[in-house]
Write a structure and sequence with these properties.
about 100 residues; mainly alpha
């Protein structure tokens, strides 16, 4: 009979410990679910920023293309300016009276 009482007392003690651990486990499960929600939100934000980054890279490429075109125009205008400079020098050397 003493053994049965001892087993009963141990069982009651472990039952209480088990209930406490189940409560802790439920709390951790809730925290885990919350962290998963935060992680999903952060992944969504990351995808948005990746999309924005891709768009900005496209804008950068377009601006680089415009810059190359403007450099070409600038070179052509510099050639025209040099030509007019030669004409201007010639006109200065040969004044029309």
């Amino acid at each position: 009979m003493t053994v049965n009482i001892f087993v009963y007392l141990l069982n009651e003690s472990f039952s209480s410990v088990n209930e406490s651990l189940n409560s802790v486990n439920e709390a951790f499960s809730s925290i885990n679910e919350s962290l998963n929600s935060v992680n999903e939100a952060l992944n969504s934000i990351n995808e948005s920023f990746s999309s924005i980054n891709e768009s900005l890279n496209s804008v950068n490429e377009a601006l680089n293309s415009i810059n190359e075109s403007l450099n070409s125009v600038n070179e052509s205008l510099n050639s025209v300016n040099e030509s007019f400079s030669s004409v201007n020098e010639s006109l200065i050397l040969c004044p029309v009276d």
